[in-house]
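Hello K.,

You asked for the raw outputs rather than the summary table, so here they are, unedited. I folded two proteins back to back in the same session to keep the settings identical. This is the first:
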Amino acid sequence: MGALTKGLNVMALLALTAVVAFLAVFQIHSSAKIAHLNNELSTQMKSMHDLQSSLNQMQTLVHHEENEIGGLRKFVGSKFNFTMQNIDAIVNETQTTLNEEVQKVNDDVSSQNNFIAYEFAGIFAVLGTLVFLWHTTSHLRDMNEPFVQRKILAILWMCPIYSVTSWLGLVFTSAEPYLSMIKDFYEAYCIYTFLSFLIAVLGRGDRNAVIDLLAGHADHMKPPLRLCGLLDGGKKYDDDPRAKAEAVLFQCQLFAMQFVLLRPLTSVALVISNALHTGSRDYTSPQFYIIWIINGSIFVAFSGLVKFYHLVREDLKWCNPFPKFLCIKGVVFMTFWQRMVITLIASTALENRFEDDRERREWIQ
């Protein structure tokens, strides 16, 4: 029993010794492991410290770079703004120069077009004047019928007067209204001269011969119209064909003469109205009523001419005056209505094309 106990004690002592040895070995191993871990931890801490230092350096560098980038951005922005300002100034200057050059080219083209128009108008004015001179010299060389040929020469003067004044009005636009007055004055005189020409052809300067000729057509001649008491009704001339013919001739001359008196007055009034009233040409403008007076006067004058022509057309058949009448009527009416149509176009369709009324008037002229 004692031996068993002694054996157990030995075994317990050996187990305890083994445990102590195991604990000692484990402690030694743990200490080495802990030392190794401490070394690794120190190394990691040092690495983290180095990494933190690197991060701080990198943050400092990034901050420095950001400051440099901000400065560079400000520098680039200022340079860009300065460059854009210079570019805008150059573009504006170039655009201004280009507009000036375009305007200069347009002015040159307009001047060339105007010069071409001056040349064409001048050529036709010279040709018309040469034709006038040829006819005038022909009549002057053979003045066989002075009473008739003087009227023809007076009518022929219409060609150079119209052509020269029209050409001068085209070149000197500011003087065109006053040159038009010259045309209007001679237009009125030419209408009456044409009636005088027909009378001269029939009577060879003798008014009584024309009255006797008209008296021969008294059977189909309408009596003269009442005109403010100057002429009586038709019953007064039923038994006196010659008095009826004289009254009709006087009325035809009176109708033509009123145009000679009214046309200069209306021309002057129209020039004054155009200078004082530059607005619209509706019923509130004085030009509206002046134009109506002109039209009425022209209608009365031509009604007298037409009435006289219808009475003596058979007697004048040998000289065929109707084409001559159409020429006179065409020149007068074409020049008048041409200006009216151009004025209407400038006041309606092309109203927005002109900057002011002065430019519009120059275009019309």
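The second followed immediately with the same parameters:
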Amino acid sequence: MTTTRHITRRLLSTSTSETSSSLPSFRYLSAWFCPYAHRATLALEHHSTRISYEWVEALGWEQRQDANNVTGTGKEWWYHWKADELKRANPSALVPTLIPLNASTKEPMDEKAVYESLVTIDYIDAVSGASGVDRLVPEDPYLSAKCRIWADKVNKECCSPYYGVLVRKEEGERMEHFEKLITGLKAFSKEVSQSSGPTFLDDGQLSSVDLALLPWAFRFYVFEHYRGPDYVISTEDPELEPYHEWLEHVLSLDSVKRTLPDKDDYLEHIGKYADSSARSKVANAVRRGVAAHDLDDEKDEY
């Protein structure tokens, strides 16, 4: 059994066909459920008047028999299927992957594909031609370096622990990952409190740091459903107040709202991780005992 989801909306909603023909254009290999890909989607939509792209759903799920009930749930394994185009363009066959189109022929240039979620944010921002406050990675060298440092920091401290809460089976291990996540959110929250807010950079300028964290911050609601009330991120902790103000603000942005997956659909999807039936590189890495960002293409293949 294979599951797919058809993208029925046109994410690039603000460019006319005449205008978009002169813009940098891409085939965007993605997956609706993937928070890593969501980072690139957010960057593309932030620059939707400057970049043209075609969404290609290139990663999905298929069931395979678990004859020995290794999952312990009586459910079958769920494995990723990958589009041939994704496997050609990206050695790791992971989303997001951006394939630029030749400006003259409009043919995909697989040899110039760009991947790795944080890299795609920087790349999209660079090719967009944006300047000033429209940049996701500021032109100022110090602020640019600061954003890259913090994007990596939130990736490791606020995003990777998400999978430990869901994939690890022992309650103590799950709580350890949750506490790491909260520590990371408090560090981010403190940094936001030192800007003029409500974003990581001053004056509401959206940045690569905001886009690095947002896909997971939106998805933290799944913890209560699958792991119970002890895994709810507190709205009463004063150290997290700037974080919650940040989240409310970024979720209100039109360029963000049109990228958000349906909560019920995503809750059903992530259940594959919560019941240990998912077989993906991220799930396998966490199951192996390493952080999601330390996955290994060979060790965590499936």
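The beta strands are 2-3, 25-30, 52-57, 59-64, 77-82, 97-100, 114-115, 278-279.

Happy to rerun anything if the numbers look odd on your end.

Regards,
P.
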